[in-house]
C-alpha cells in the first residue's frame, strides 16, 4: 500500500546588521514549504511574496533558433566554446556530473558554462552586455513575456519517464521556466523589486531534472546525486567563488563598488553554514545563542559594521544569490553601499554571506 505524506516546514529567515556600538537585529520570517510524495517531488522554494495569477498560454516550444550568442553557445562543442570565449578563468565541479567553466572577466558579462563529456548541458549568465536576443538583461517582465510566454505547467517526456513541472504563481513571476524545444529549457530570473530580467539559465532535460527547481509530478525515475567528501569540498569552494562573482555583477548593475574578497571572513561564513547543516537548524544564531558578532570577535576580525545573509536547499550558488536579491532584507545587505568586503561560506546546500564595512 502506497503511503503519502506532506511535511510543512516553517523556517525563519533573519537578516541583521551589527554596529560597533550596539548590535541591531532585523528579522524577516518567511514560510518555506517542502512537499514529498511518491509521485510528486518538491524542492525548497526561493524567497518571495508575489501571488499573481496568470492565464495559461499555449505551449510555445519549438525548434526555433534565436539570434543571441548565448543560445549559439549552448549548441557549441568544447573547442567552439574555447574559440569563442577563450579558456575559462577556472573550472568548478558540481554535484550533478557536469563541470562549470567560469568566465568572469568578460566585459559586461558573467557566464558559467556547464560542460559534460565535451558538450554544453547548461549555461547560467548575467550582465548588461550579455547577448540573448531577442531579449536583454534589464528588460521588463512584460517585454520578456512577449517573446517567451510563461506557463504554470511545463512538460518533459524522456525514455526514463514523464515529468510535469508545476510552477506556483510567485515562481511564474520570479523565475519562470520556458520550454524552448524538447531538448532546451530556459529559466528567467527576474528582480521583482524592479520588475526587470536579472539573469538566465539554459539547460538540457537531464540538468533540469537534476536541479529540480520546482514541484514536479512524474512517472518514472528522478536522478540520484552521490558525491564523496573530497568531491563536496571542491564543489563548496567553487560555489563560494561563484556567489562572490555573481554578487559583484549585481552590484555593478546598481552602480555600486564591488566587494573585496576576505578570506578570514569567508572562514567564519563557512563555519556557520557547516554548523547549521550538521546541527539541523537554520538561523543567524547558533543553538548556544552566538551570533555573527560573536563569530567575528572569536576570530579577532575588526569592522565598523557587518551583515549576514543565509540560505538553504537551493540547487546551486546562482539560485541562492537570485533568491537573496528578491528578499527585502537580504537585498539591502547585498546592495549596501557601506559594505566593502565579503566572505562567503558554503557547506553542502547551506549558504552564508558575511558582509563587512572595514576599518580604515
Automatic annotation (TrEMBL):
Sequence intervals crossing the membrane: none
Domain CAP-associated: 77-214
InterPro entries recorded: CAP_assoc, CAP_dom, CAP_sf
Pfam families linked: CAP, CAP_assoc_N
Superkingdom, taxonomy of origin: Bacteria
Gene3D superfamilies to which the protein is assigned, alphabetical: CAP (3.40.33.10)
The SCP domain, residue ranges: 248-355
Protein name: Uncharacterized conserved protein YkwD, contains CAP (CSP/antigen 5/PR1) domain
Species of the source: Salinibacillus kushneri
Amino acid at each position: 500500500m502506497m503511503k503519502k505524506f506532506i511535511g510543512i516546514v516553517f523556517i525563519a529567515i533573519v537578516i541583521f546588521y551589527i554596529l560597533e556600538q550596539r548590535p541591531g537585529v532585523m528579522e524577516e520570517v518567511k514560510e518555506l514549504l517542502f512537499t514529498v510524495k511518491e509521485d510528486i517531488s518538491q524542492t525548497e522554494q526561493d524567497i518571495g511574496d508575489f501571488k499573481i495569477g496568470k492565464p495559461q498560454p499555449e505551449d510555445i516550444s519549438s525548434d526555433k533558433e534565436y539570434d543571441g550568442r548565448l543560445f549559439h553557445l549552448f549548441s557549441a562543442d568544447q573547442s567552439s566554446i574555447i574559440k569563442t570565449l577563450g579558456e575559462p578563468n577556472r573550472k568548478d565541479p558540481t554535484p550533478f556530473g557536469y563541470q562549470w567553466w567560469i568566465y568572469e572577466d568578460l566585459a559586461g558579462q558573467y557566464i558559467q558554462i556547464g560542460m559534460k563529456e565535451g558538450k554544453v548541458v547548461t549555461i547560467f549568465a548575467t550582465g548588461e552586455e550579455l547577448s540573448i536576443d531577442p531579449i536583454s538583461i534589464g528588460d521588463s517582465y512584460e517585454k520578456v513575456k512577449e517573446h517567451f510566454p510563461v506557463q504554470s505547467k511545463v512538460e518533459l517526456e524522456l525514455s526514463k519517464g514523464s515529468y510535469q513541472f508545476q510552477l506556483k504563481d510567485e515562481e511564474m513571476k520570479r523565475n519562470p521556466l520556458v520550454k524552448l524545444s524538447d531538448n532546451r529549457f530556459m529559466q528567467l530570473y527576474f528582480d521583482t523589486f524592479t520588475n526587470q530580467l536579472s539573469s538566465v539559465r539554459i539547460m538540457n532535460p537531464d540538468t533540469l531534472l537534476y536541479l529540480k527547481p520546482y514541484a514536479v509530478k512524474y512517472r518514472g525515475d528522478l536522478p540520484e546525486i552521490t558525491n564523496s567528501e573530497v568531491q563536496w569540498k571542491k564543489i563548496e569552494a567553487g560555489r563560494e567563488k561563484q556567489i562572490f562573482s555573481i554578487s559583484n555583477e549585481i552590484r555593478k548593475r546598481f552602480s555600486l563598488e564591488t566587494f573585496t574578497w576576505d578570506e578570514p571572513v569567508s572562514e567564519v561564513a563557512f563555519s556557520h553554514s557547516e554548523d547549521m547543516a550538521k546541527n539541523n537548524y537554520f538561523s543567524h544564531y547558533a543553538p548556544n545563542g552566538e551570533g555573527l558578532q560573536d563569530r567575528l570577535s572569536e576570530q579577532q576580525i575588526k569592522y565598523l559594521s557587518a551583515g549576514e545573509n543565509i540560505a538553504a536547499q537551493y540547487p546551486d550558488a546562482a539560485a541562492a544569490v537570485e533568491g537573496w536579491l528578491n528578499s527585502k532584507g537580504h537585498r539591502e545587505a547585498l546592495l549596501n553601499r557601506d559594505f566593502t568586503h565579503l566572505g562567503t561560506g558554503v557547506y553542502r546546500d547551506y549558504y552564508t554571506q558575511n558582509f563587512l564595512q572595514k576599518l580604515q
